[in-house]
Amino acid sequence: MTFLSTVKAIAISAALAVSVALPAAHADEQYFPLQSYRVGPYAAGGTGFFGGFIDYLNLINIRDGGVNGVKLTWDECETQYEVERGVECYERQKSHAGAAAWNPLSVGIAYAMIDRITADKVPLITVNHGRTDSTDGRVFPYVFPLLLNPYSETSGIVNYIAAKEGGIDKLKGKKIVVLYHGSPYGKETIPIYELLAQKYGFTVQQIEVPHPGNEQQSQWLTIRRAKPDFVVLRGWGVMNPVALKTAVKVGYPVDHIIGNVWSNSEEDVIPAGDAAKGYTAITTQASGNTYPVVQEIVKTVYGAGKGNLEDKSRIGSVYHNLGIVNGILNVEAIRIAQEKFGHRTLTGDEVRWGFEHLKLDPAKVEALGAKDLFHSINVSWDNHEGEGYVTFQQWDGKKWNVVSDWIAPDWALLRPIIEKSAEAYAAEKGIKPRTAADAEAVAATN
Amino acid sequence: MIGDFDYQFFLEVLTGGLLSGVMYSLVAIGFVLIYKTSGVLNFAQGALLLFAALTFVSLVERGVPFALALAVTFAIMVALGIGIERTVLRPLTNKPPITLFMATLGLSYIIEGAAQLIWGTQVHGLELGIEDVPLEVGGVLISQFDIFAAAVAAAMVLLLSLFFRYTRIGLSFRAVADDQFAALAVGLRLPLIWASVWAAAGLVALVAGLLWGARLGVQFSLSLVVLKALPVLVLGGFDSILGAIVGGLLIGASEKLAEVYIGDYFGGGIESWFAYVVALVFLLVRPSGLFGQKLVERV
């Protein structure tokens, strides 16, 4: 190859690379800024979740040619689950036109972005996590803790324990220990456990495990002495397998430990080995690869060599399926908004409107190929969680098995508490709560 | 009231704390080896521990027999240790201690990144074939795995002590630790000794990595166990293997007892910082630690 032809080849390659890599703002593209984490302590969860999300976006592009012809695009910015990096990523990615929604999968990053995305009028999705009071769309117009907020999760767990004991009245006199991660995320549910304990007559003891949770001997000895009927594990990362191993070490029965939604993945149980057998955890989406939508991803996306997971054995894992469900919710919100605003690139505020009309009943969920993968969602302008149902899965040493029906948290009980907290936030920040009419008004541009 | 005091529970907490302390000592010993001979506080010891455990478990998962995986991982750790000494620390010889510390800090990030790049980010279970059902001794439950870990730590300390006392290279280590310039003057080859000590630290990282990996699962958080070793080093002294053991026992026992008996007064979750309170108090009273060498500088 001559020098000139080499230069020409490099120039063509560079031009191609730039055309692929540049965040072009075409009229028929909808962009997702992904603040992902594929290295660092929480990489296992990040690769699974963002892998599932991207797999679903790819499915829509390959199978359907996008959403009504609007291609879905995205780029990733590595956060390592660190708040400052997440904010850096936000600053870098926000200038891209056509941003549909932010999905950082991090409580810390989400908290840091609330004021910013509210000013930008672009939705922030915190599926299964985030601030509980952001459920109140009157005060948090752009934040969506879809499917499950921490209080609903707590209510779902207590309802499950009640069902195991034979009814809600059987909770009276029982003792529950909550072992929580020493972080704002871990402490979020302290008041609601106290409140439910008072309401149903059980006693609750809440014990903190300092971050990262790789030593829990003293906590579990305290638990053994307390002799609780159940332990709720509200963990994260390495804290979860260590909790299960230490429980066995002090002789506490693992089948009386109920994990929360961030203690429910394969990554939480596999490192614990045999100690995790019989452990049960709450989830909003079932694991496994038998659901039609997952099968389609395997056939269409992985078949085309565009699958995001390097390790294909992780297809259908808890985090991968959560990513897929998150993809479904984002895409359907865009589809709903397009029906009102047109089949084109939408503004962030138009996508917000789409999320606020995101209603997927079980029949619609089935039509999307996700029957039994998740139950349903019913988001409105003032309820940004959308009444997600939960189910419980038990680890048998190799895989999770669903062991309950879909359970509804006690939304009626929780709503006044959420509103009170949101109103306090509004007062502190000087926010005037929206009305339904305000929510219908949509900004024309970002 | 004394009469109401649950002695059995106290003993259980104390025993658990002492056994946890042994696990901290295992990590601390890796620091001591390097510090003793080269004066470098090797912050990358946690990353080495992660790298060793991840390499071992990845080889086993790819069908390599246990013993062969152990041997291959050991060889890799020795090569890595020698490589670090040659490429990072040797060029920085005679630089201020803070420069060397910063170099190992940077190194820890590079090793963590490389470990994930090579072996992936998935978490792994690691079974060493040790039952972890508790043994009941006089009404006190004791973890079989922790007893095994304590036995391994004791064996390692014994081996290292014999090595330092009776082998030529071990005696060279001690000579270098006492006075580098005098050691050079009598013809000891410092680069060879430093390479050997980094290889030894690699072995310690492998042993600690396997035991901690079996306890936590093999995942990124393994590298964070260095945070448990630091107060142990402050307490026991940075250049004493015996100090690492005694420091580990004291830190393990005190943090567990504090968590259980006074934790509630501070809202719980105090053990992670209580260890540093103990270390800080010792630092104020005895800056060189319980067994550390007192530095006397003539000015």
From TrEMBL, chain A:
Signal sequence annotation: 1-27
Keywords annotated in UniProt: Signal
Pfam families assigned to the protein according to its UniProt record, in alphabetical order: Peripla_BP_6
Domain Leucine-binding protein: 38-397
CDD domains (UniProt xref): PBP1_ABC_ligand_binding-like (cd06334)
Family statement: Belongs to the leucine-binding protein family.
Protein name as annotated: ABC transporter permease
Organism: Mesorhizobium atlanticum
Lineage of the species this protein comes from: Bacteria, Pseudomonadati, Pseudomonadota, Alphaproteobacteria, Hyphomicrobiales
UniProtKB/TrEMBL annotation, chain B:
TM region positions: 13-33, 40-60, 66-84, 96-119, 139-164, 192-212, 232-253, 265-285
Alphabetized CDD domains for the sequence: TM_PBP1_LivH_like
UniProt-recorded Gene Ontology molecular function terms: transmembrane transporter activity
Main location: membrane
Highest rank taxon of the organism: Bacteria
Biological process according to GO: amino acid transport
Membrane topology: Multi-pass membrane protein
Family: Belongs to the binding-protein-dependent transport system permease family. LivHM subfamily.
Protein known as: Branched-chain amino acid ABC transporter permease
Organism (species): Mesorhizobium atlanticum
